[in-house]
Design a protein that fits this description.
This protein is mainly beta. The protein has one helix and ten strands, in the order H-E-E-E-E-E-E-E-E-E-E. The protein has one domain: Lipocalin, CATH 2.40.128. The protein is 5% helix and 52% strand. Keywords: Signal.
Length: 162
């Protein structure tokens, strides 16, 4: 099961989807700050992949916003993600690591999945392969490019409510 989940959650940026995008070649991320995404702060829950999802975002502090994500299927933790969005050199970077339900990491010890900022557009913040959208003060969407075992990719919508 873990190999399937890893393959399933590998990010494939070769396909452009409706709500996600990539940074064009030979361009740099635009200026942005954590205030552009501070609305993510809070405890969020939803449903995806046949289970219950929970995502918790802390407030901007120390140049980052930290988060945790948990997927529970059939009353058992399927996996966790831990990460942050950091302000680095006047822009934002989204970074994360995956863990099995027993907290054994998916990535190598020092490996971190990192996604560059593409643009900030009103209530949407675009990173490579991920888009964060404020629907209202009590609802957000996260769009993610998810890789399939066959090498294809699809965009998945995570809808969360406070």
């Amino acid at each position: 099961m873990s190999r399937f989940l890893f393959a399933f959650f590998c990010i494939s940026l070769s396909i452009h989807a409706q709500n996600t995008t990539t940074l064009p070649e030979n361009t740099v991320s635009p200026n942005a700050s954590l205030s552009d995404i501070s609305w993510m702060q809070g405890n969020w829950s939803g449903e995806a992949f046949g289970g219950i999802t929970e995502e918790i975002w802390g407030p901007p502090l120390g140049g980052s916003m930290m988060f945790s994500f948990k997927l529970v299927v059939d009353n058992e933790v399927s996996f966790y993600e831990l990460g942050h969005i950091r302000e680095i050199e006047k822009t934002l970077t989204y970074e994360l690591k995956h863990f099995h339900g027993d907290l054994k990491g998916w990535e190598e010890k020092d490996e971190v999945k990192s996604f560059k900022l593409v643009k900030v557009d009103g209530d949407r913040v675009y990173f490579e392969g991920f888009t964060f959208e404020k629907v209202s003060d009590n609802e957000i969407n996260i769009y993610a490019q998810i890789g399939n075992e066959d090498g294809s990719a699809q965009e998945v919508t995570f809808n969360f409510k406070k």
